Structures are given as structure tokens and as C-alpha cells.
Amino acid sequence: MTKKTILITGATSGFGAAIAQLFAQNGWQLILTGRRQQRLDDLQKQLGRMTNVHTCCFDISDRTVVEQLIDNLPAEFADVDVLVNNAGLALGLEPADQTDLDDWDKMVDTNIKGLMYCTRIILPIMKQRGQGYIINIGSVAGNWPYPGGNVYCATKAFVRQFSLAIRADLLGTGIRVTNIEPGNAETEFSMVRFKDNEQQAEGVYQSTEALTAEDIANTVAWLVNTPSHVNVTTMEIMPTQQATGPLAIYRADH
Ligand code: NDP
Ligand code: 8X3
Questions:
Q1: Is 250 within the bounds of a domain?
Q2: CATH code at 108?
Q3: 201 in Cβ contact with 193 (< 8 Å)
Q4: Residue/partner pairs of 115-120 with CB below 8 Å, 24 or more apart
Q5: Active-site residue flag, 146
């Protein structure tokens, strides 16, 4: 029987790496992307013992390179069954008037444009086959803004609305779309956000029990195994130890 194929962007750490591991164990063949060649080589070596693995090292915000991905796919990987648009990042937690504009650009280029490009190149393959599943990794940040979240929150709100809107386009095609919206999860996310400041990054997970990358991988596997007539539109997943807070009120006398 032909193996099913999953394309995971940002497979070199965190959620992406955990999804790759789980799907390899479950007998899927993998297309794995990221910018760190060494990590991709390590994944190829490790997971290649279990299944067929094709790795592509590129920056998803580079449209030309993303467009070449399809042309360079070996024939046996061409029928992509599932695309997990996972690659993404937050940079900084400063108030909007103090942020580095380069950080804003990078979040928009990666979380919005990169996700758009990957979706656009894969959709025709799925449409032609009359099946497929796009799983976007949004965030609670797309629903619940917080101080310093500014552009990161906005990029994840884009992911939510884009997911809903392409579902509307894809009605009748057999292609499913889900936006997973995780809350606090312990990965390299905070080291990236705080630019390798370990103390700040560790503080995010201190004295609480965050989600793990495996929690999200299990969620992706569960979604993919739902019957093809079922489409889970949105899934917000928080750690038990996380909840929304009250609206803030500024009081001039404090
Ligand atoms: P990690 O930092 O561990 O992983 C991020 C992945 O994205 C890496 O594999 C990285 O690979 C890849 N990536 C980042 N930028 C680019 C780029 N320009 N081109 C290609 N690949 C890129 O974080 P997570 O696993 O936590 O994050 C995965 C997704 O989950 C992100 O979209 C994030 O916003 C989202 N998320 C995370 C939450 C959390 O609390 N951890 C909660 C909610 C959502 P490389 O560096 O090799 O390019
Ligand atoms: C990551 C979760 O709350 O740090 O998307 O934005 S949060």
C-alpha cells in the first residue's frame, strides 16, 4: 500500500519535530522543512530508519524558493495528503511604540506570508486529487491579545481568518482545513522570542505545567484520523494551568 505523505513546515524543533516523530512511527512518509540544515540532516538520519523522509532547507518567507519546492519534490512524495503549516515565531514582547520594526517584518513575513505561500503551492495538488488536509498552527494569541503581543497576536488572528476563509473557497473539494490554537507550550518558542535570553525564556514555563510538543502532535494525529466527512474548524487548546484574565482598566489614581 502507498504510504500517506505529510508535509510539515518548521520540523526542526518543537511542534514540528514532535509531529514528524509521531507520523514516522505511524508509517507516514515525511516532507520536512526548516532553515537549519544540520537539524534536517539529523531528522533524516533518525526518522529515515522508520519511513521515507525528504527534507528541504529554506526560509518560508522567500516566495521564489517556496515555489520551487513543488518542482523539486521527488515523484514518490508528490501526492501530499496533509500540509501542517507550523513554521512560525514570535520576536520580542515590547510595547508597540518600542518594538524593532525588523521583528515585526519578520513575523509578518514568516507567520503570514510564509503560511500563505506554502498553502498556495500545495492546494492545487490537493484539489486535483479531490482530497487533502491543511492544518494551520495558529495560537490563542489570535483570539486573546496581551501586552507586548501586538504583531504576533495579529499574525495569528490572520491565521484564524485565513483558515476560515479558505474553507469557504474549498467547499465541495473534499479538502479539509483546521486551525489549531495552542496556548502556552514549552518548545524553543520562548528562546526565539527572547533572542536566546535563557532566563526570560525559562520564566515563561516556570512554576506551571505548560503544554508539550507531543500534546500538539497527538492533536494533529487525532484530527487526521477523523473521518473524511468531518471537519474540525478550530481547536483552541490551553494547558489546564492557563486561562483568560479579566479586561484591564487603567485608573489614573493608582
Ligand atoms: P519552535 O521555535 O520550537 O519551532 C519553530 C519552527 O519554525 C522551527 O522548526 C523553525 O525552524 C521554523 N521556522 C521559523 N521561522 C522559519 C522560517 N522563516 N522559515 C522556515 N522555518 C521557520 O516553536 P514552536 O514549535 O512552539 O512553534 C511552532 C508554531 O507554533 C509557530 O507557528 C508558533 O507561533 C506556534 N505556537 C507556539 C506556541 C508555544 O507556546 N510554543 C503556542 C501557540 C502557537 P528553523 O529555525 O530551522 O527555520
Ligand atoms: C504562543 C502562545 O501566549 O505566548 O502563541 O502567544 S503565546
A1: no
A2: 3.40.50.720
A3: yes
A4: 115/9, 115/60, 115/85, 115/87, 115/88, 115/159, 115/162, 116/162, 117/60, 117/61, 117/63, 117/66, 117/67, 118/7, 118/9, 118/60, 118/66, 118/69, 118/83, 118/85, 119/83, 119/85, 119/162, 119/166
A5: no
Residue 223 within a domain: yes
pLDDT in tens, 38-81: 999 999 999 999 999 999 999 999 999 999 988 889 999 999 99
Q: Which residues 6+ apart lie within 8 Å of 90 measured at CB?
A: 107, 141, 149, 152, 189, 192, 193
Mutate which of 110, 150, 152 for ligand 2 pocket (most atoms within 8 A of beta carbon): 152
Pocket, ligand 1, Cβ cutoff 6 A: 10-16, 34-36, 39, 59-61, 86-89, 110, 114, 137, 139, 182, 184-185, 187-189, 192
Q: How far is the CA of 16 from the centre of ligand 1 (A)?
A: 8
Instruction: Give me ligand 2 centre to Cα 184, in Å.
Output: 6
- Asked if residue 15 belongs to a domain, the reply is yes
pLDDT tens digits, one per residue of 195-242 = 999 999 999 999 999 999 999 999 999 999 999 999 999 999 999 999
Task: Examine residue 196 and state whether it is found in any structural domain, yes or no.
Answer: yes
- Give the domain range for residue 171: 5-237
Counting the structural domains of the chain, the total is 1
